[in-house]
């Protein structure tokens, strides 16, 4: 169960960090789009933030189900 909680926490941190940084690019509006179009570094940074957000979602789901599975196994072993 503890491993699932740790994975869940890491996933949530990655999700919120990636999402909040993406919002900064989104707040620039059309200027953010122009910067991404002209700068390969900015485009790469945005892609990395999107991947970080996606990885956070995936780790969060895996961590959640791992924690739940740990609770179920623990409760079944206590009932025996």
How do the strands and helices of this protein lay out in sequence?
Layout: H1 2-27, H2 30-38, H3 40-79
Compact description:
By secondary structure, the chain is mostly helical. It contains 3 helices and no strands.
Q: Report low-confidence residues grouped into runs of 5 or more.
A: none
- Number of structural domains: 1
Q: How many E strands?
A: 0
Please identify the oligomeric state. Answer: single chain
How much β-strand is present in the residues? under 5%
User: Which class of secondary structure composition applies to the elements?
Assistant: mainly alpha
Radius of gyration: 18 Å
Number of alpha- plus pi-helical segments: 3
Account of the protein in words:
There is one protein chain. The protein is built from three helices and no strands. It has 80 residues and is an all-alpha fold.
Give me some keywords for this one.
80 residues, mainly alpha
